[in-house]
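Technical annex, item 7. During the second reporting period the consortium partners agreed on a shared format for inverse folding records so that results from different sites could be compared directly. Each record opens with the tokenized structure and is followed by the designed sequence. A conforming record, contributed by the partner at site C, is shown below for reference.
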């Protein structure tokens, strides 16, 4: 079959799969409108280990991928699809391979094109979904469990990083902080909830000063560790204050850098995406920024379908040898 693949913004019914970490997700998206968006989180499975165990995640994806795809399809048949989209990377390699293999099989079985999507582009494309799609150009803060970067987005499908974290991602800082405070995994949402009961000025946690538009979150994490050690048995009674102050420091770092980047680039519009974009203090601190609905901040497949609308799809059999990649390109 010949053809250029998907053109920008083509009208298409897309089935997308996302298995880069610990969410098994599938979605059906019709011209940017979400028909279904199924996310089966493995968080409970990994909670007892305090983080995602890659091999456990891969095995669980294998069990869940078919039922999750079936649920996303609902009454629709594979014959109605125009293309299949899938996260190719970055992420856990074994987890990615489950989604990629399933997507290849689904596409190949129906002679459909396959659109491989970069997970980070997917997070940005969560902003392009109906009913309120954001039009580029804009400056995007992408803050998740695996990545934290500032991205200049001049047009649909474009992705120009202008700053990144030098160590931990913001979501990772939330998760590690939550662990130090004895909260569950993943910890971002827990800290967000607990912080509402605490005083954000109670502790003075540092905001790292790094050159350019980069971020660093290892210092604030270490500061929390020392505070927790110093408090000993009194951590319990100060937990909400610690959570509120810790969250304040992370949000301040994200907001400061985003505002600096907006000034430098002259961006008129700012957007926030990724799991940390679900944070209530961050959303309140950037009132003029566009953020996706909460369900589209954390990992999902609707955002992968959305990115596929602006990416090149590969015609069969060109994708059969396609490999996943673990690190950001
Ligand atoms: O985008 P995502 O689902 O997965 C990655 O691509 O990494 O992001 C997950 C991250 C986790 O670190 C989680 O703790 C964080 O997003 N997160 C939050 C909130 N909800 C999820 N962080 C702060 N506040 C929240 N409400
Ligand atoms: Zn993600």
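Designed sequence (site C submission):
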């Amino acid at each position: 079959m010949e053809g250029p693949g998907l053109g920008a913004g083509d009208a298409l019914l897309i089935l997308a799969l996302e298995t880069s970490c610990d969410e098994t997700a599938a979605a059906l998206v019709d011209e940017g409108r979400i028909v279904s968006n199924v996310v089966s989180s493995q968080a409970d499975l990994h909670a007892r280990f305090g983080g995602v165990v890659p091999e456990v995640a891969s095995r669980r994806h294998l069990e869940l991928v078919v039922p999750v795809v079936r649920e996303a399809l609902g009454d629709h048949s594979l014959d109605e699809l125009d293309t299949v989209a899938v996260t190719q990377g970055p992420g856990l390699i074994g987890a990615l391979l489950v989604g990629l293999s399933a997507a290849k099989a689904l596409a190949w079985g129906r002679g459909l094109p396959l659109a491989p999507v970069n997970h980070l582009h997917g997070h940005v494309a969560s902003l392009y979904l109906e009913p309120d799609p954001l039009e580029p150009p804009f400056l995007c803060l992408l803050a998740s469990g695996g990545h934290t970067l500032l991205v200049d987005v001049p047009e649909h499908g474009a992705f120009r990083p202008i700053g990144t974290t030098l160590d931990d991602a913001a979501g990772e800082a939330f998760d590690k902080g939550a662990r130090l405070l004895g909260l569950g995994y993943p910890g971002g949402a827990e800290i967000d909830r607990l912080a509402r009961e605490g005083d954000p000025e109670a502790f003075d946690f540092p905001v790292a000063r790094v050159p350019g538009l980069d971020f660093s979150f290892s210092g604030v994490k270490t500061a929390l560790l020392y505070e927790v050690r110093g408090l000993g048995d009194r951590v319990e009674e100060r937990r909400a204050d610690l959570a509120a102050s810790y969250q304040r420091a992370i949000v301040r770092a994200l907001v400061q850098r985003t505002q600096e980047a907006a000034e430098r680039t002259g961006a008129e519009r700012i957007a926030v995406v990724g799991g940390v974009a679900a944070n209530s203090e961050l959303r309140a601190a950037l009132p003029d920024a566009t953020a996706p609905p909460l369900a589209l901040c954390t990992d999902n497949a609707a955002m992968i379908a959305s990115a596929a609308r602006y990416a090149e799809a590969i015609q069969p059999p060109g994708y059969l040898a396609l490999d996943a990649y673990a690190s950001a390109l």
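DSSP finds eleven helices and nine strands in the chain. The radius of gyration is 20 Å. All partners now use this format for quarterly exchanges.
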